[in-house]
Design goal:
The complex is a heterodimer of chains A (149) and B (110). Chain A has 149 residues and is an alpha+beta fold. Chain A has one domain: START domain (Alpha-D-Glucose-1,6-Bisphosphate, Chain A, domain 4). In chain A, 20% of the residues lie in helices and 40% in strands. Chain A has helices spanning 14-22, 24-27, 116-124, 141-148; strands at residues 4-10, 34-37, 44-48, 54-63, 67-77, 83-85, 89-98, 101-110. In chain A, strands 1, 2, 3, 4, 5, 6, 7 and 8 form an eight-stranded antiparallel β-sheet that branches. The termini of chain A are close together. Residues 113-142 of chain A have low confidence and may be disordered. Chain B is of the alpha+beta class. Chain B has a single domain (3-108), classed as Arc Repressor Mutant, subunit A, CATH 1.10.10.10. Chain B has helices spanning 3-13, 16-28, 33-38, 44-56, 75-104, and strands at residues 31-32, 60-65, 68-73. A three-stranded antiparallel β-sheet of chain B has the order 1-3-2. The longest helix of chain B has 30 residues, at 75-104. Chain B is elongated. Classes of the chains: A alpha+beta (149), B alpha+beta (110). Chains A and B meet through strand 1, helix 1, strand 8, helix 3 and helix 4 of A and helix 1, helix 2 and helix 5 of B.
Amino acid sequence: MATVEREITIEAPPAEVWPAVTHSDRVSEWFGAQVELDPRPGGHGVFRWSDGTERRAVVEQVEPEHKLSFRWLPFQRTAEGDLEPIPSTRVEITLDEIPEGTRVRVVEQPAFAPGMTTIHTRAVAGGALTPRRTARPRASGPVLAAIDA
Amino acid sequence: MRPDRTDLIFSALADPTRRQVIRALSEQGPATATGLAANLPVTRQAVTKHLSALANAGLVTSSRRGREKLYQISPRPLTDAVSWMAALGARWDDRLAALRDHVATPKRRR
């Protein structure tokens, strides 16, 4: 549930794609942010967007030329220097060799590290969680299907 | 949508029983914990606990019905969560296309 899954075929072998997804200067050219990545389990990633937003990640799995996964920290720093909570998700990038080259697959899904949601909830307590009033419940079928997908 | 809410919504929906509760509410309309438990393989106490997690995420709202609470689905946060996922998917589409172009760019071939 609640998983984003995307893939693309690249006409180059995994050995050529791998540096592009793990070397900081290479990642910075396609990710949409300036990236400093230490591609080792437990290594840190720092992602800086041009609007001044900064997010950090911790690398989880590294299987050379095959798999890189990392977990976003559940906060981002805004251009003003404020910390704001963001959804805690885990990203897994997998490279598979296929006749055409490499199939690159990305899966991003909510990450529920023990305690993370608790800390998170406490951080946003004080108004942000007030349930909002809504009109009558309906048309949630397709939405549920999307979430179950 | 506030990102903190997205996180709450996703953690609330991570549990399969809670998704069943949401589904039951969307199919049957407003119901009490007792009414929901009758059609689910869990106790009323468990349903109450799940409903409270769902309410905390803004996914259900409740009103008093005698000694029990009547719960109903709150569709907006669900729609928001799906939009958030669609935006995230679109961002990855852009990134993957950029990655492909980047790998294909001759100056990058070493």
